[in-house]
Design goal:
Number of helices: 7
Order of helices and strands: EHEEEHEEHEEHEHEEHEHE
Radius of gyration: 19 Å
Number of strands: 13
Distance between the termini: 18 Å
Strand content: 15-25%
Helix content: 25-40%
Length: 278
């Protein structure tokens, strides 16, 4: 039986962290095992290889970006995650639209990296683009379902005598994934905002520098002269900088982005439920 439950995640907005840790905590309680946490959200955390062992049960959480695993983080998952025969539970967290092929993709990558797939989950959280879509998710009902899922995973784990014989688990989605979701605006046409970056309101900004500390791409630094943030690298639209700013001094205001946000709010407010696979 596994010696350690490991919660491993990329979580710019904090939602994937919450879901991954909660599931790992429930598993640790059910199995009577210690839990360890590994957060590879920030660039410095992705400078080293993460090695698991056959004694590990790994809850591996990722957010869904355009229906897939975030493409700028995928190379780290592919090259520096070493399963070494561990048992894994891939988890994707999405903003109430659809998880599309993200869970299939994450399962495939973990399996190829030497992980045995025991179970999987797709959980709804607040959409990082909007405080209206999936607001307050995961909520109490979601957490109750995750807790029940953890009980089922623990039971399955306890009955698996040959852990190396686990399959990689059948999941919905295109395998292998072929396309990314195309964002659309309110006119129904593709909304092109790939090069959009946050804009700083210098009158609001107090120069605290927190936005630079939370950027998962290391793309924000504070100018030594003006004490204001400068965006000088890749932006993955994760909204970490926007969500952390208490004075609302940094936002993405690109017209195509705002049109896509409005389209989501007009079409994806109906509640979706988490999905679990065993």
């Amino acid at each position: 039986m596994s010696d350690t439950i490991k919660a491993v995640y990329f979580s710019p907005s904090g939602a994937t962290k919450k879901v991954t840790n909660y599931l790992a905590d429930c598993l640790a309680e059910n199995l009577g095992l210690p839990k360890q946490e590994y957060d590879f959200t920030l660039p410095e955390a992705r400078e080293q290889t993460l090695n698991f062992s056959k004694e590990d049960l790994v809850v591996f959480g990722m957010p869904v970006y355009a229906g897939r695993v975030p493409n700028k983080i995928l190379p780290y998952v592919q090259s520096q995650i070493k399963g070494n025969g561990c048992v894994a539970v891939p988890v994707v967290v999405y903003g109430n639209r659809n998880f599309d092929d993200a869970l299939v993709e994450l399962r495939n990558e973990l399996f190829q990296n030497g992980c045995q797939i025991l179970a999987a989950a797709a959980v709804v959280a607040r959409h990082c683009f909007s405080d209206q879509i999936g607001a307050d998710r995961p909520d109490e009902n979601d957490l109750l379902k995750i807790k029940e899922f953890a009980e089922n995973v623990a039971e399955k784990w306890s009955h698996e005598t040959e852990k190396e014989g686990l399959s990689y688990l059948d999941l919905p989605g295109t395998n292998p994934p072929e396309k990314y979701y195309t964002p659309k605006g309110t006119d129904g046409k593709p909304a092109v905002f790939l090069k959009a970056v946050p804009v700083v309101d210098e009158e609001r900004c107090i120069g605290c520098g927190i936005c630079g500390k939370v950027c998962p791409m290391g793309s924000i630094h504070v100018d030594k002269t003006t004490k204001r943030p400068v965006i000088d690298g890749i932006c993955i639209k994760c909204q970490a900088c926007v969500l952390c700013c208490d004075v609302e001094a940094i936002k993405i205001v690109h017209p195509a982005f705002l049109s896509h946000k409005q389209m989501l709010e007009e079409n994806f407010m109906e509640r979706k439920e988490p999905e679990f696979f065993l």
